[in-house]
Amino acid sequence: MDRYWLKIKESIWFIPTLYSLFSVVLAIIFSTIDHLFDQTLLLYVPHVLLTTVDLAQTILGGLSAALLTMTTFTFSTIMVVLTTYSSQFSPRTLKNFVRDPMVWRVLGVFMGGFIYTTLSLLFMQESIAGESVISSLIGVLYAMICLIFFAVFIHHIARNIQVNTLIEKLTIEGIDAVGCYEAFLKREDMTTQTNDNWTIRGTAYPITARRDGYLQLVDIEQLIALAQKHKGKIEMNCYIGDFVQEKTQVFTLYTKEQLTLQEIVGNLFVVGGERDTRQDPVFAIQKMVEVSLRAISPGINDPNTAIHNIHQLGRLLGSYSRLPRRDFIFMDEDKQLRVKMSIHTFEEVLYHTFHQLRHYGKSDISVLGAITDSLTMAADLSPLESKKDIWLIQLYVLEGMENSDFQTLDRVFYQKKIDKLANLVGEGSVDLKIFMTDESN
């Protein structure tokens, strides 16, 4: 049930539907008041706020047309922004805009306003006993609210279409994903120090995926409960974010009990058509890398955006470097080891972050300098055991510069950055001359 509720909440039309249903209820309530309590209105509502049926129909008809126009314009604007995200940033960043509740809240308010005014017109009849109705007043107030939301929407779009805002959101998204694993470390039933004590016995029962897609989320509580129920242990056979096919073995349950596959049930994990960053910081890093690659491509040629984004990568990598270098092992309340979960090593994350940036940015000294700055930021936040991995990646970037022809001042500029990183990680610096060819000599 949780899986289906998650899909419903992520649906584009979930928030607009809620606002539309609210507007239906609102129209029914005030139409009922107009039909049954018209005399009571005269006692409690100032006469100037009430209208006749004919005037109310005129007002609601105009508001209905205006709100439908605003709804169409808003939806068109949303589609333009989605196209911009896809073409200029990365197709993977579309979900960041689609998940923005403010966008769909505005669309829901406009749709709800149109539904309210239309239904109020439908329910309003010439045969209403009194001459005064309140539905038009509510329609006018609803229209004013729509105008406020429209102004907020324009400001929100103007701000979020800026690449710096997107980069900041991607960085926070990645840090939040790392925070998911940091929250695991705070659990009393979790350890990363007992890999040597992890032994498996009994028969192996595969826990497979029911559909093709990416492994998005894992429910640790359900896995611990399953392992405890069958007095066994569960090992994770892939990483969160991996693509799995139907019947691919995602987890393995080891137990001495005799089970059938039908007995291994439960919402243990979620497989979807797209990767999800909530438990997958590597995907957040990938999206940021794609924004940088798009920025330094010949078609866009915006190296300053790439530089800013690469600097933000240093923050995210620094957070990731603090995660344990061993597997996450979860225990039950009896301190019995139950679930073993693996994450990508920091060395792997560093390589997959910079191997494309190194390749496509090796001829731009500003991009190379940004990469070294990013590694310096990460090293400043990372523990001692991760600094060696950072220095190895810096040497890997320098290897890609072999036979590059940079001018003297370029070398001086980059050499200072390398020296700073070497000093921070406790390594001896290297001379750029061994990686470059100087045609002037």
TrEMBL record:
Organism of provenance: Paenisporosarcina macmurdoensis
InterPro entries: DUF2254_membrane
Keywords for this protein: Membrane, Transmembrane, Transmembrane helix
Descriptive protein name: DUF2254 domain-containing protein
Record-annotated membrane-spanning stretches: 12-33, 59-82, 103-124, 136-154
Coiled coil start-end: none
